[in-house]
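Quick question, first post here. What does this chain look like in 3D?
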Amino acid sequence: MSKFMVTGAAGFIGSRVADQLLSQGEDVIGIDNLNDAYDPRLKLHRLDALRLYPNFVFQQIDICDRQSLEELIKKQTTNENVAAIFNLAARAGVPVSVENPWLYVDTNTTGTLNLLDLAKQFGIPKFVLASTSSLYGSQNPLPYNENANTDRPLSPYAASKKGAEALAYTYHHLYGLDVSVLRYFTVYGPAGRPDMSIFRFVHWIESGVPIQLTGDGSQSRDFTYVDDVARGTVLAVRPLGYEIINLGSDRPYTLNEMIALIEKFTGKNAEIQSFPTPHTDINATWADINKARNLLGWLPQVSFEEGIGRLVSWYQENQALASTINFPTLFKQNEKVS
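> Answer (accepted):
Ran it through. Tokens below.
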């Protein structure tokens, strides 16, 4: 049994990583600031499930608060060292990063630096960093390979994650910290983020509200089920030196195909309102996952159709919560294309 620190433990992916570690009998120190970037009730819903484990400890801390992090790690390493830090705390999402890039740099870049430096200070040998496929931008060939050029991020969100990756390499080079950087591709599933299109679309179609679709729906995404991503993240704790690894499904679907599957599982038809495509958007994502297969022995297990079915079932079973979540409205009526 080992002790692990998971930041962003009440988040969509972080909670599933913590759950998989806890179910394996590991001790987990969960950290989250429980901010209001989206409805905090979802975060508390996930946290309630983790608190059922006796081997789970939670502290409400912001990773930008280095002093509080240091005090926590010092306390938790009195009798046993922390084997690894899984840094899944982040400000996520592209549109808000354009409005407030400073917030994203503070959390995603400086917050990561705090954790890297504390790993060095306390002799924590392994660091797993959650990154993003947004780094690949719009000019790389598909499928995206980890060696592709990531020097032209299209949003402050992607740029802040690029900074975190660069700092992680620096700490590997200078101090021998073992680092796995995981670039996630459009993660979805039960209790997801309400700012993500799939969860919003399920809610709007179930509620009979028109969905807000940017573009014509032909753009495609490498949708990846959350439990597959969490499993790959846990596997990445093994010693690797410094590696960047894609975690995706290797099977892109268009937004129109996604909408059709939601219609199938809800038994309801979508009313679509079309809006212009933002400048930060890209037409397609697609992960080359050969490296994950070779280094981690990882492959996705949940098909897109099965994953959408699970998400819709969760929404319907948790309707008292899910139907009252504050889902952001992305566009005003006068911005519609049709």
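The CA atoms of residues 16 and 230 lie 6 Å apart.
Residues 3-185+225-247 form a domain with the Rossmann fold fold (CATH 3.40.50.720).
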